[in-house]
Design goal:
Order of helices and strands: HH
Radius of gyration: 17 Å
Strand content: under 5%
Number of strands: 0
Shape: extended
Distance between the termini: 59 Å
Helix content: 40-55%
Number of helices: 2
Largest sheet: none
């Protein structure tokens, strides 16, 4: 029997799709941040959400 081929399953499943309508200026800032951090735009947005959550919990 041949071994199973293909990409291995991810540990954290990301199965929620979210569409956004933002200004071009905001999209440019997001891309600049992603490039500067060498991360994806999704990772930058997730970081931002974590920062906002921490700020709310601090109050």
């Amino acid at each position: 029997m041949t071994p199973r081929t293909g990409r291995p399953p991810k540990k954290i499943k990301k199965d929620v799709a979210l569409g956004l309508r933002i200004k071009q200026e905001t999209a440019d800032k997001l891309q600049w941040c992603a490039d500067a951090l060498n991360e994806s735009r999704t990772q930058v947005i997730e970081r931002g959400i974590d920062l906002v959550e921490a700020e709310i919990n601090k109050k």
